[in-house]
Design a protein that fits this description.
The structure holds 2 protein chains of 2 kinds.
Chain A lengths: L2 E3 L4 E5 L4 E3 L2 E3 L4 E8 L5 E7 L5 E3 L5 E5 L4 E6 L8 E9 L8 E2 L3 E6 L1
Parallel strand pairs in A: 2-12
Antiparallel strand pairs in A: 1-4, 3-9, 5-6, 5-10, 7-8, 8-9, 10-11, 10-12
Chain B lengths: L2 E5 L2 E4 L5 E8 L5 E7 L5 E9 L2 E4 L6 E6 L2 E6 L8 E8 L8 E2 L3 E5 L1
Parallel strand pairs in B: 2-11
Antiparallel strand pairs in B: 1-3, 3-8, 4-5, 4-9, 5-6, 7-8, 9-10, 9-11
The chains are: A mainly beta, B mainly beta.
Protein backbone atom coordinates (compact mmCIF):
# COMPACT_ATOMS: atom_id res chain seq x y z
CA UNK A 1 0.00 0.00 0.00
CA UNK A 2 1.09 3.55 -0.57
CA UNK A 3 -0.03 6.82 0.97
CA UNK A 4 0.95 10.45 1.14
CA UNK A 5 0.14 13.16 3.66
CA UNK A 6 0.23 16.91 3.31
CA UNK A 7 -0.26 18.04 6.90
CA UNK A 8 -1.01 21.68 6.13
CA UNK A 9 -4.17 22.75 4.34
CA UNK A 10 -2.74 26.22 3.89
CA UNK A 11 0.67 27.87 4.06
CA UNK A 12 1.05 31.63 4.27
CA UNK A 13 4.32 33.36 3.49
CA UNK A 14 5.42 36.90 2.70
CA UNK A 15 6.85 37.66 -0.70
CA UNK A 16 10.63 37.34 -0.69
CA UNK A 17 10.67 34.91 2.23
CA UNK A 18 11.56 31.24 1.86
CA UNK A 19 8.68 28.79 1.61
CA UNK A 20 8.26 25.15 2.53
CA UNK A 21 5.30 22.91 1.71
CA UNK A 22 5.44 19.63 3.61
CA UNK A 23 4.87 16.10 2.36
CA UNK A 24 5.37 12.72 4.01
CA UNK A 25 4.84 9.37 2.37
CA UNK A 26 4.54 5.65 2.96
CA UNK A 27 5.37 2.92 0.42
CA UNK A 28 6.45 -0.69 0.59
CA UNK A 29 9.27 -0.42 -1.95
CA UNK A 30 11.34 2.45 -3.29
CA UNK A 31 9.42 5.74 -3.40
CA UNK A 32 8.90 7.66 -6.59
CA UNK A 33 7.88 11.15 -5.47
CA UNK A 34 6.33 14.04 -7.37
CA UNK A 35 5.19 17.61 -6.88
CA UNK A 36 2.53 19.31 -8.97
CA UNK A 37 1.07 22.81 -8.93
CA UNK A 38 -2.48 23.81 -9.81
CA UNK A 39 -3.63 27.35 -10.55
CA UNK A 40 -7.35 28.17 -10.24
CA UNK A 41 -9.55 26.41 -12.80
CA UNK A 42 -6.54 24.81 -14.48
CA UNK A 43 -5.08 21.36 -14.71
CA UNK A 44 -2.12 20.24 -12.61
CA UNK A 45 1.38 21.06 -13.81
CA UNK A 46 4.35 18.82 -13.09
CA UNK A 47 7.06 20.59 -11.04
CA UNK A 48 9.66 17.97 -10.15
CA UNK A 49 10.24 14.36 -9.22
CA UNK A 50 12.56 12.14 -7.23
CA UNK A 51 13.26 8.69 -8.59
CA UNK A 52 16.84 8.02 -7.49
CA UNK A 53 20.13 9.86 -7.05
CA UNK A 54 20.70 13.18 -5.31
CA UNK A 55 18.36 13.86 -2.44
CA UNK A 56 17.94 17.50 -3.51
CA UNK A 57 15.90 17.75 -6.66
CA UNK A 58 15.55 20.97 -8.63
CA UNK A 59 12.48 21.69 -10.69
CA UNK A 60 10.55 24.33 -12.56
CA UNK A 61 10.05 27.97 -11.48
CA UNK A 62 12.90 27.86 -8.93
CA UNK A 63 11.33 25.14 -6.80
CA UNK A 64 13.30 22.32 -5.25
CA UNK A 65 12.51 19.41 -2.98
CA UNK A 66 14.54 17.38 -0.56
CA UNK A 67 14.10 13.64 -0.25
CA UNK A 68 14.66 12.41 3.30
CA UNK A 69 14.46 8.64 3.53
CA UNK A 70 14.76 8.41 7.32
CA UNK A 71 11.92 10.87 7.83
CA UNK A 72 9.96 9.62 4.80
CA UNK A 73 9.53 13.19 3.68
CA UNK A 74 9.72 15.12 0.43
CA UNK A 75 9.20 18.77 1.29
CA UNK A 76 8.89 21.38 -1.44
CA UNK A 77 10.98 24.52 -1.02
CA UNK A 78 11.78 27.80 -2.66
CA UNK A 79 14.34 30.32 -1.37
CA UNK A 80 12.32 33.43 -2.20
CA UNK A 81 8.55 33.30 -2.70
CA UNK A 82 6.70 35.28 -5.35
CA UNK A 83 3.07 36.38 -5.26
CA UNK A 84 2.63 34.42 -8.49
CA UNK A 85 3.57 31.22 -6.61
CA UNK A 86 0.18 31.37 -4.88
CA UNK A 87 -1.56 28.17 -5.96
CA UNK A 88 -2.54 24.67 -4.84
CA UNK A 89 0.34 22.21 -4.48
CA UNK A 90 0.04 18.43 -4.64
CA UNK A 91 2.53 15.82 -3.55
CA UNK A 92 2.22 12.33 -5.05
CA UNK A 93 3.95 9.00 -4.46
CA UNK A 94 4.24 5.76 -6.37
CA UNK A 95 5.84 2.53 -5.28
CA UNK A 96 8.85 2.04 -7.56
CA UNK A 97 9.22 -1.54 -6.45
CA UNK A 98 6.78 -2.78 -9.06
CA UNK A 99 3.09 -3.41 -9.01
CA UNK A 100 0.72 -0.58 -9.82
CA UNK A 101 2.11 2.45 -11.61
CA UNK A 102 -0.79 4.54 -10.36
CA UNK A 103 0.35 7.36 -8.06
CA UNK A 104 -1.40 8.39 -4.88
CA UNK A 105 -1.96 12.11 -4.44
CA UNK A 106 -2.09 14.11 -1.25
CA UNK A 107 -5.05 16.35 -0.51
CA UNK A 108 -3.15 19.45 -1.56
CA UNK A 109 -1.77 22.50 0.23
CA UNK A 110 -2.90 25.98 -0.63
CA UNK A 111 0.07 28.35 -0.75
CA UNK A 112 -0.70 32.02 -0.28
CA UNK A 113 2.12 34.49 -0.83
CA UNK A 114 1.36 37.95 0.55
CA UNK A 115 2.81 41.07 -1.10
CA UNK B 1 6.06 18.25 -28.09
CA UNK B 2 3.13 16.57 -26.44
CA UNK B 3 -0.18 18.28 -25.78
CA UNK B 4 -3.40 17.17 -24.16
CA UNK B 5 -6.82 18.56 -24.97
CA UNK B 6 -10.11 18.36 -23.12
CA UNK B 7 -13.52 19.58 -24.13
CA UNK B 8 -15.78 21.13 -23.35
CA UNK B 9 -14.19 23.50 -20.86
CA UNK B 10 -17.43 24.03 -18.98
CA UNK B 11 -20.73 22.20 -19.02
CA UNK B 12 -24.05 22.68 -17.25
CA UNK B 13 -26.36 19.70 -17.47
CA UNK B 14 -29.70 18.75 -15.88
CA UNK B 15 -30.01 15.73 -13.62
CA UNK B 16 -30.77 12.62 -15.64
CA UNK B 17 -29.15 13.83 -18.85
CA UNK B 18 -26.29 12.00 -20.58
CA UNK B 19 -22.65 13.05 -20.49
CA UNK B 20 -19.71 12.77 -22.83
CA UNK B 21 -16.33 14.34 -22.08
CA UNK B 22 -13.49 13.89 -24.50
CA UNK B 23 -9.74 13.91 -24.04
CA UNK B 24 -7.11 13.61 -26.76
CA UNK B 25 -3.34 13.53 -26.61
CA UNK B 26 -0.98 14.63 -29.36
CA UNK B 27 2.70 14.01 -29.90
CA UNK B 28 3.03 10.63 -28.22
CA UNK B 29 1.94 7.07 -28.80
CA UNK B 30 0.57 4.38 -26.50
CA UNK B 31 0.15 6.70 -23.51
CA UNK B 32 -1.35 5.63 -20.22
CA UNK B 33 -4.52 7.67 -19.81
CA UNK B 34 -6.38 8.70 -16.67
CA UNK B 35 -9.63 10.38 -15.66
CA UNK B 36 -9.74 12.18 -12.31
CA UNK B 37 -12.48 14.11 -10.56
CA UNK B 38 -11.67 17.00 -8.27
CA UNK B 39 -14.42 18.05 -5.91
CA UNK B 40 -14.63 21.48 -4.34
CA UNK B 41 -12.72 20.16 -1.35
CA UNK B 42 -9.64 19.94 -3.58
CA UNK B 43 -8.55 16.27 -3.48
CA UNK B 44 -8.13 14.22 -6.67
CA UNK B 45 -10.16 11.06 -7.10
CA UNK B 46 -8.95 8.61 -9.74
CA UNK B 47 -11.95 7.39 -11.74
CA UNK B 48 -10.51 5.34 -14.61
CA UNK B 49 -7.22 4.53 -16.21
CA UNK B 50 -6.22 2.84 -19.43
CA UNK B 51 -3.00 1.24 -20.65
CA UNK B 52 -4.21 0.66 -24.20
CA UNK B 53 -7.08 0.71 -26.67
CA UNK B 54 -10.15 -0.91 -25.20
CA UNK B 55 -8.43 -1.53 -21.83
CA UNK B 56 -10.19 0.32 -19.03
CA UNK B 57 -9.75 -0.08 -15.30
CA UNK B 58 -12.25 1.42 -12.92
CA UNK B 59 -11.16 2.62 -9.53
CA UNK B 60 -14.49 3.59 -8.02
CA UNK B 61 -17.94 2.08 -8.69
CA UNK B 62 -20.13 4.92 -9.85
CA UNK B 63 -22.47 6.38 -12.37
CA UNK B 64 -19.72 6.90 -14.94
CA UNK B 65 -17.99 4.85 -17.61
CA UNK B 66 -14.94 5.34 -19.80
CA UNK B 67 -13.87 4.20 -23.22
CA UNK B 68 -10.71 4.35 -25.29
CA UNK B 69 -11.70 3.90 -28.92
CA UNK B 70 -8.34 5.12 -30.25
CA UNK B 71 -4.80 5.13 -28.91
CA UNK B 72 -4.83 8.79 -27.94
CA UNK B 73 -8.52 9.31 -27.22
CA UNK B 74 -10.19 8.83 -23.86
CA UNK B 75 -13.90 9.42 -23.30
CA UNK B 76 -15.81 9.76 -20.04
CA UNK B 77 -19.53 9.07 -20.22
CA UNK B 78 -22.69 8.77 -18.22
CA UNK B 79 -26.16 7.69 -19.25
CA UNK B 80 -27.90 9.64 -16.48
CA UNK B 81 -26.15 12.36 -14.50
CA UNK B 82 -26.61 12.76 -10.76
CA UNK B 83 -26.17 15.90 -8.71
CA UNK B 84 -23.14 14.30 -7.12
CA UNK B 85 -21.42 14.09 -10.51
CA UNK B 86 -20.70 17.81 -10.39
CA UNK B 87 -17.01 18.62 -10.20
CA UNK B 88 -13.86 19.41 -12.10
CA UNK B 89 -12.84 16.55 -14.41
CA UNK B 90 -9.22 16.17 -15.34
CA UNK B 91 -7.70 13.95 -17.97
CA UNK B 92 -4.02 13.04 -17.74
CA UNK B 93 -1.47 10.99 -19.60
CA UNK B 94 1.87 9.45 -18.78
CA UNK B 95 4.48 7.52 -20.69
CA UNK B 96 5.44 3.95 -19.89
CA UNK B 97 6.24 2.99 -16.31
CA UNK B 98 9.77 4.34 -16.60
CA UNK B 99 8.48 7.82 -17.43
CA UNK B 100 6.49 8.38 -14.35
CA UNK B 101 5.15 11.90 -14.21
CA UNK B 102 1.65 12.70 -15.39
CA UNK B 103 0.63 15.53 -17.67
CA UNK B 104 -2.80 16.99 -17.13
CA UNK B 105 -5.30 18.58 -19.45
CA UNK B 106 -7.00 21.91 -18.74
CA UNK B 107 -10.05 20.26 -17.20
CA UNK B 108 -13.82 20.36 -17.64
CA UNK B 109 -16.01 22.07 -15.06
CA UNK B 110 -19.27 20.09 -14.86
CA UNK B 111 -22.29 21.45 -13.00
CA UNK B 112 -25.32 19.21 -12.68
CA UNK B 113 -28.52 21.05 -11.76
Amino acid sequence: AQSVAQPEDQVNVAEGNPLTVKCTYSVSGNPYLFWYVQYPNRGLQFLLKYITGDNLVKGSYGFEAEFNKSQTSFHLKKPSALVSDSALYFCAVRDGGGGSYIPTFGRGTSLIVHP
Amino acid sequence: SQTIHQWPATLVQPVGSPLSLECTVEGTSNPNLYWYRQAAGRGLQLLFYSVGIGQISSEVPQNLSASRPQDRQFILSSKKLLLSDSGFYLCAWSGGPRNNEQFFGPGTRLTVL
